[in-house]
Amino acid sequence: MRSRWLMTLFASIPIIAAALALQSCGGVGGPQTDTGGLPSVTQQFLALLGVDQKSATYIGADACAGCHGGKSPDDPIYAHWKDTVHAEKGVTCERCHGPGSAHQAAPSKENILTFPKATSPIVCAQCHGPTHDQYNFSAHVKLIASPVDSGVTNPGQSRSSACMSCHSGLFRNMVNDKGKVLADLQDDEIRWIAENTLTSAPHSATCVTCHNPHSKTGNLTDDGKEVMLRKKNFNTDTTDVAPGTTAQQFTNFDHGCAQCHNGRGTNPADSRLQASTSRPSMHDSNQYNMLMGFGGVEGSGPVQRNTAHANAPGQCTKCHMPDSRHSFTVSFDKGCAPCHTAADAAARTGQVKSEVLGLLTSLRGRMEAWAAANLGDADFWDYTSLIQAEGKTPPNQANVPIEIKRARHNYYFIIRSGDYGVHNAPYAKHLVTVANTNLDALNAPRPAAPKMSAEQQLRVIEEHRKKANQAEMNLPEDN
Ligand code: HEC
Ligand code: HEC
Ligand code: HEC
Ligand code: HEC
Ligand code: HEC
Ligand code: HEC
Ligand code: HEC
Ligand code: HEC
Q1: Of 4-8, 188-192, 276-280, 426-430, which gets the smallest average pLDDT?
Q2: Contacts of 162 (CB under 8 A, 6+ apart)
Q3: Alpha-carbon gap, residue 233 to 147, rounded angstroms
């Protein structure tokens, strides 16, 4: 698995991550002669500048202040910037926006590098080389084409907005900052994003999706550092992601990672399970729901939702970004300290994953055995679009008892989070128990567990997860 070797790779990068990689000086577009000890402007950065800016020269941040100086409450950029580490270290406006003489003479968006092109990670990579290298290995640099592609071909559809708000980092900025949706297509910026996401801005999340480039925000890291985060990365408020909230509402969730990594409309109420039978109601991103422990069918007994992991300082970033590592891969050595040693964390992870995979395999075996005996086909316990994907005609869903519908919800709830119990072992195991209790009520058989290693079980289950994703691509959004 890719994350394994990344883990080793980044564990060996020395902690000079904050050290700035020096790059060669650019020759076109009015190169700065004095960079104040900062790395020079790069060729890749200069290549972002439009023709009207290529021959401009540098005028200094104070010259921008006259017009962007905070005189209007709508444009307090200079005043805010002045207060940042960037200003202190001499990272002036023009290091990110390019030389300003032409713009000063005749202000326009054509002669200054601005949104959307200014959001390229290349702007930040001029100085944050090591961070950019780590980020380049992360999943966030990639794009799942289809949800974004639908934005290009059918730009007016709400489905596209709903997908792009988490699958395009730039679109997310528009949603967060300006409350825009794809229906605002007459807007230049929205149109640029819709048309260029696949080619020019292919990132799920870019530097400025998570960081405000101009301003302190007060959303501190777990060790109290101000790193200009747009959203806080610790939040135990579950009201916004309570089961039953619509998918659209989930995209407003106020949490650095969970704004995208949430279940997006997961709903375990019986009424919803009866009404929505084409595909699982949670998206492939329900990690926050899993961590906090809600969104599965929980039964009537006591539920342990809130674990030490949910309360780990920084939550997601504690385990996925130790030392601000931007690959977002988990580190057993740094990410799990001081609570576990690396060896303990690795052993527990292996143990919990194989246990949960075993439980899921047995659960699925029971649902298959019940369906074969009662509906005539082992696949018929599943959601209709997933049965259709096998070339079969699904049974009338009125003939599928609520117990099966509850069990399959919990089955998918666990596999779509993708961590197989590591985020919240008590909750994942509880959901399996509740599923089995429901199957007991149907007297579903307990076939002997197939002889498979944890790796083989994972392969089978991931195959199932992939099918659920494909089903989601092909169906109109229903929530
Ligand atoms: C003489 C006044 C003036 C000065 C000086 C000036 N700007 Fe501007 N700037 C403007 C105006 C007016 C606009 C809006 C242009 C438009 O919308 O067509 C603008 C737009 C911008 C934009 C695009 C905003 C957007 O909505 O996309 C950026 C970025 C920008 N300026 C940065 C700078 C920087 C950096 C400097 C200093 C190097 C600077 N400006 C100096 C007046 C100025
Ligand atoms: C560290 C890089 C960086 C620095 C320094 C910086 N900017 Fe920006 N700026 C950006 C990026 C990236 C965007 C587009 C993303 C966004 O809107 O957050 C942007 C957006 C803008 C906009 C458009 C805002 C809008 O509503 O679309 C203006 C105007 C602007 N900057 C002016 C300035 C001025 C003036 C300074 C100096 C006082 C400055 N910037 C310093 C990176 C920077
Ligand atoms: C011209 C160089 C330069 C550019 C371009 C640049 N930075 Fe920085 N950045 C710095 C320096 C220098 C520091 C101070 C870090 C240090 O001293 O280790 C810094 C600090 C930061 C910090 C930490 C802030 C803090 O309070 O510790 C963040 C976050 C950051 N930059 C994000 C960005 C982003 C996002 C971009 C692109 C939009 C960007 N930077 C572009 C040079 C740059
Ligand atoms: C609330 C944010 C959010 C919204 C809205 C959203 N997604 Fe996602 N989606 C994610 C995240 C985060 C992941 C990655 C989860 C992971 O890797 O575990 C993901 C993963 C996926 C995957 C799995 C990709 C793979 O790795 O194989 C598909 C397919 C997908 N999304 C399609 C869509 C479609 C189609 C829409 C619109 C109907 C959509 N998404 C809307 C957040 C969202
Ligand atoms: C998905 C969100 C996300 C993206 C994308 C992202 N960052 Fe960060 N960044 C964070 C978080 C969260 C932290 C604080 C981590 C922690 O708790 O230490 C951080 C920390 C930092 C710091 C401070 C490091 C330190 O040791 O003080 C810098 C600098 C930085 N990021 C730059 C960047 C740059 C440059 C990019 C793009 C190449 C980028 N970030 C992309 C979320 C993100
Ligand atoms: C703007 C939306 C967005 C934000 C914010 C975001 N992510 Fe993601 N993340 C995604 C998407 C979309 C993917 C899947 C990308 C792909 O596979 O193409 C993803 C993938 C990942 C993966 C890899 C999953 C895998 O299948 O291997 C991890 C780990 C991850 N994100 C962690 C985080 C953390 C930690 C944060 C907060 C610091 C965060 N993400 C913030 C959208 C986001
Ligand atoms: C206690 C540490 C910890 C915390 C807290 C944590 N994670 Fe994880 N996460 C892990 C581990 C360990 C794995 C890898 C499991 C494995 O071995 O596959 C993982 C896996 C993932 C994956 C990959 C799943 C896939 O699709 O294959 C994503 C995405 C993810 N986490 C996102 C998040 C987000 C978002 C948060 C915050 C809501 C978070 N994690 C909180 C430890 C943590
Ligand atoms: C803030 C402290 C903290 C951090 C950080 C933390 N854990 Fe845990 N973890 C715990 C506690 C407490 C338990 C429950 C221990 C128990 O009940 O025996 C636990 C349990 C676990 C379990 C087993 C759950 C079970 O029920 O058997 C796994 C697996 C696990 N952690 C993996 C990790 C990994 C991997 C990391 C780092 C990526 C990590 N943890 C980070 C505190 C933490």
Answers
A1: 4-8
A2: 247, 248, 251, 477
A3: 26
> What is the CA(424)–ligand 8 centre distance, in A?
9
For ligand 1, the distance from its centroid to the CA atom of residue 181, given in whole angstroms, is 25
Q: State mean pLDDT over 38-44.
A: 95
Q: Of the bound ligands, which one is closest to the alpha carbon of residue 99?
A: 1
Q: Is the pLDDT of residue 72 over 60?
A: no
Confidence band for 187, pLDDT divided at 50, 70 and 90: confident
CA–centroid distance, residue 251 to ligand 3 (Å) = 28
Instruction: Write out residues with Cβ below 6 Å of ligand 8.
Output: 308-309, 312, 318-319, 330, 332, 335-336, 339-340, 345, 348-349, 352, 422, 425-426
Burial class (CB in 10 A: 0-12, 13-18, 19+), 359: buried
Model confidence at 181, pLDDT cuts 50, 70, 90, reads: confident
Name which of 159, 143, 240 is nearest 197 in CA terms.
143
Q: Is the CB of 227 under 6 A from ligand 3?
A: yes
Contact 93 CB / ligand 1 (< 6 Å)? yes
Q: How far is CA 7 from CA 327, 334, 424, 456, in A?
A: 9, 11, 21, 23
> What are the structural domain ranges in the chain?
21-117, 139-210, 239-474
Q: Is the CB of 368 under 6 A from ligand 4?
A: no
pLDDT higher than threshold 50 for residue 248: yes
What is the residue with the minimal CA distance to atom 26 of ligand 3? 227
User: 85 alpha carbon to ligand 3 midpoint, in Å?
Assistant: 7
Across 18-25, average pLDDT: 34
Nearest ligand to the CA atom of 226: 3
d(CA 248, CA 121): 28
Q: Rounded mean pLDDT of 185-211?
A: 90
- Residue 76: is its pLDDT beyond 90? no
Peptide bond between residue 116 and the one before it cis (omega within 30 degrees of 0) = yes
Give 236-273 as a 3 state SS string. Answer: CCCHHHCCCCCHHHHCCCCCCCCCCCCCCCCCCCHHHH
- Residue for token pair 């298959």: 368
C-alpha 83 to ligand 1 mean position (Å): 20
Atom of ligand 1 nearest to the CA of 60: 38
Q: Give residue 282's pLDDT band: very low, low, confident or very high (50, 70, 90).
A: very high
State the average pLDDT over residues 305-323.
94
The protein residue with its alpha carbon nearest to ligand 3, atom 16, reads: 18
Pocket of ligand 3 contains residue 180 by CB under 6 Å: no
- Residue with the larger pLDDT of the pair 357 and 31: 357
